[in-house]
Amino acid sequence: MSFVVPALCAVTLIALTVSFIRSTEPKIGAAVSAAVSVLLLFLLADKGAAVKSALSGVAGGRLAEYSPYILKSVCIGFFTQTAYDVCSDSGERGIASKVLTAGKLGILAVCLPLIKALLDTALGYIQ
């Protein structure tokens, strides 16, 4: 977790730079903002391996079978939020709302095996 403070400082400097560019050249600023958002998302994506190993060690490894669903859902959430922010910054509010809906449906689709397992367990206890 030693990367958090320098990363936050770098993001702050990048945000200030993008803000300056956007105030002087709005069209270029939107493109730079989108590019920086996607770049930062991919730079932080490699930290997913650390999260995966941490999840597999939780609860004596009993969560290991569910960790892929959790990680996929979180990644879909991050990518959806980034796409939403890019669309919103570009002034496309209608597309941004559709992106959020698509992300929610994607998370639901990924989690369907978990929901099925949960319902099977609940029905097993009821019977």
Please outline the major beta sheet. Answer: none
Unreliable residue runs: none
What is the beta-strand fraction?
under 5%
* Tally of contiguous helical segments: 5
Distance between the termini: 46 Å
Sequence of secondary-structure elements: HHHHH
Mean pLDDT across residues: 77
Q: Any idea what the shape is?
A: elongated
Q: Based on DSSP secondary structure assignment, what is the total number of beta strands?
A: 0
Give the total of domains: 2
Percent of residues in helical segments? over 70%
Secondary-structure content class: mainly alpha
Give the C-alpha Rg. 19 Å
Topology of this structure?
Elements: H1 4-24, H2 26-45, H3 48-57, H4 67-89, H5 93-126
Helix pairs in contact: 1-2, 2-4, 4-5
Outline:
The chain is built from five helices and no strands. The protein is an all-alpha fold. It is elongated and about 65 Å long.
Structure in words:
The protein is an all-alpha fold and 127 residues long. It is 85% helix and 0% strand. The chain has helices at residues 4-24, 26-45, 48-57, 67-89, 93-126. Helix 1 (4-24) packs antiparallel against helix 2, helix 2 runs antiparallel to helix 4 (67-89) and helix 4 (67-89) runs antiparallel to helix 5. The longest helix has 34 residues, at 93-126. The protein is elongated.
